[in-house]
Design goal:
- The chain has 332 residues and is of the alpha/beta class.
- It contains 13 helices and ten strands.
- Strands 1, 2, 3, 4, 5, 6, 7, 8, 9 and 10 form a ten-stranded mixed β-sheet that branches.
- Strand 1, helix 1 and strand 2 form a beta-alpha-beta unit.
- The longest helix is centred in the C-terminal third of the chain and has 24 residues.
- The protein is globular and about 70 Å long.
- InterPro entries: Glyco_trans_2-like, Glycosyltransf_2, Nucleotide-diphossugar_trans.
- This is Glycosyltransferase 2-like domain-containing protein.
């Protein structure tokens, strides 16, 4: 039985998958299997997929699963859950088909950390690393995920273990700038199954929803500050990306659903409080966007919701302004 099962979901992007798959095949850790879930790619791409996967299968444990075609696919959450359901490794990892792992020793290093923890009878069920973001081939300078976490921990006096990892809590992780991207997560398969995996009803930011539930239920979590992946931020002009396929307001509604879920069902008080704060921010962004569209009545509704969730004097004024603009007669 392999230690790692690496799942890559893909749809209509065989050329991008080639680089992603090559980066996993380059890993120095031999104790792993690779699972490709083809989410009903169009017939125009099938030959390219078949050729690529046939070449890659030689000399490695690669399994390919083709989902039944649907007009827009089953979605990443379903595809990843399907892949995990086929996995036999003790730990599962993920890679977007348009991204790459850049550190060939990533899995080998993680394997040593996880084995050491198991031998000490303090098993780890969530291992996290970092990645760099690129837009149109250029690196983004700002912090997006948890790149700043190690520096924050050191500033508080925490010293990494000899293997380079920091043991972290949910409070530590929530204090970071963002959340750990799927490319950088290694999850005990038992934990993934215990939380029922990805929420297949969330079509955008399902990885954030998964992250909140993982850090809520994990028994022991560690962060290794190594940068192990390159994430290619979707270009807003490219319509084939799931991230850019929905309108801005539809994305905000997905955020509200996952944040409401977290407020309702998270067991950790800090996670619930974090979700409430982010719900207020999301409601404010919805109100601002509706105001830009001059939909004053609906903007006033969401401004009131934002004010109730995260009251401030500024949002009291914004709410009053939107309500006033709604009540004023329209200019002819």
């Amino acid at each position: 039985m392999p230690t790692f099962s690496i799942i890559i979901a893909t749809r209509n992007r065989p050329q991008l998958l080639r680089a992603a798959l090559a980066s996993v095949l380059s890993q120095t850790e031999p104790d792993r299997e690779i699972i490709i879930v083809n989410d009903g790619s169009d017939s125009a791409h099938r030959e390219a997929y078949a050729r690529l996967l046939s070449e890659a299968a030689a000399g490695t444990t690669l399994r390919v699963f083709d989902l039944l075609p649907r007009p827009h696919g089953h979605g990443p959450s379903y595809a990843l859950n399907y892949g995990v359901a086929q996995a036999i490794g003790d730990f599962v990892g993920f890679l977007d088909d348009d991204d790459t792992w850049t550190d060939d020793a990533h899995l080998e290093r993680a394997g040593r950390v996880l084995l050491e923890a198991a031998h000490s009878r303090r098993p780890i069920d969530l291992y996290m690393t970092n990645q760099h973001a690129f837009l149109k081939g250029e690196p983004l300078p700002r912090t997006i995920w948890i790149e700043d976490l190690a520096a924050e921990l050191r500033a508080r006096g925490q010293v990494p273990a000899a293997n380079g990892t920091f043991e972290v809590t949910a409070d530590d992780l929530l204090a970071a700038n963002g959340f750990c991207h799927l490319n950088c997560l290694i999850v005990a398969r038992s934990l993934y199954e215990r939380i029922d995996g990805m929420d297949e009803d969330i079509r955008w930011e399902g990885d954030r929803d998964l992250y909140y539930r993982l850090i809520d239920r994990a028994q022991r979590m560690v962060h290794h500050p190594a940068t192990i992946a390159r994430h290619n931020v979707p270009d807003a002009a490219v319509r084939q990306s799931v991230t850019t396929a929905a309108s801005s307001l539809e994305k905000r509604l997905c955020q509200l659903r996952l944040l409401d879920k977290t407020v309702l069902f998270a067991s950790h008080p800090a996670i619930r409080a974090h979700a409430r704060r982010h719900k207020a921010l999301t409601l404010k962004k919805i109100a601002e966007e509706l105001a830009r569209l001059r939909q004053w009545q609906t903007a006033a509704f969401y401004a009131r919701e934002a004010l109730a969730t995260g009251p401030t004097l500024k949002w009291l004024a914004v709410t009053a302004y939107c309500q006033l603009r709604h009540l004023l007669p329209r200019r002819r």
